[in-house]
Amino acid sequence: MREPALGRHLIVEVFEADSHLLNDVQGLEQLLLDAARAANATVVKSVFHRFSPYGVSGVVVIAESHLTIHTWPEYGYAAIDIFTCGPKMDLDAAVEVIRQGLGGRLLQIEINRGQGVRRLRGDRADCKYAVGATTS
Amino acid sequence: MREPALGRHLIVEVFEADSHLLNDVQGLEQLLLDAARAANATVVKSVFHRFSPYGVSGVVVIAESHLTIHTWPEYGYAAIDIFTCGPKMDLDAAVEVIRQGLGGRLLQIEINRGQGVRRLRGDRADCKYAVGATTS
Lengths: 136, 136
Fold this sequence. Notes:
Two copies of one chain form a homodimer.
Chain A: E1 7-15, H1 25-38, E2 43-51, E3 56-62, E4 65-72, E5 77-84, H2 91-102, E6 105-113, H3 117-121, E7 131-135
Antiparallel strand pairs in A: 1-5, 1-6, 2-3, 3-4, 4-5
Helix pairs in contact in A: 1-2
């Protein structure tokens, strides 16, 4: 039986999305925060910026890892990553929030991060939920 | 001829690395900042936190996208992502900084993000370097 991965990393390619939505820095920050919460994540911090002349980049740091988005409104395209650890995370719910919020079409790839590492070491790590020192 | 991707996304799996280094939140923040600068990136912000009892998560937001790290010191493992746009980025230099800093062994996968999107729309987008409004 395959051992569980340490991290689940969902790569989401969004295309044919609305260009105005993809250029709305506040709307996208709210969308990714909503997606994080839909996934049962604990939000630590979010950092978003808008580019000149267009495009938005943003990161939501969660206690269980991160969500990121980079948009190219001129192509109706967004690159989204959802990286989590822990069995309680509902990635499907996060993706559904994004799908509803952005419209367009989505492609997903899931990558198992750290697959095989446990076998090298033996014992079992749980997801780390308790956040200690934070820098910013 | 294949069109250029909008984003280059390097997935780096580090294993058999030193556990103490993987638990040093300040050292890892400095390491990722050094890696970002080695890649010719413009650092916008970094957010790092240490978990209890061990493990570090961090994000370096760059004008050209992001770098992230999540570590499991108990397994000598780190999951690192380097997401960039723009032809001037030197991803190999960034990876070399990480390799030197963490030791251990590295596996890399590169994913072309937004490949094919330009063909849907036609014209060419340059990488967005000029940062506008930033939230935090």
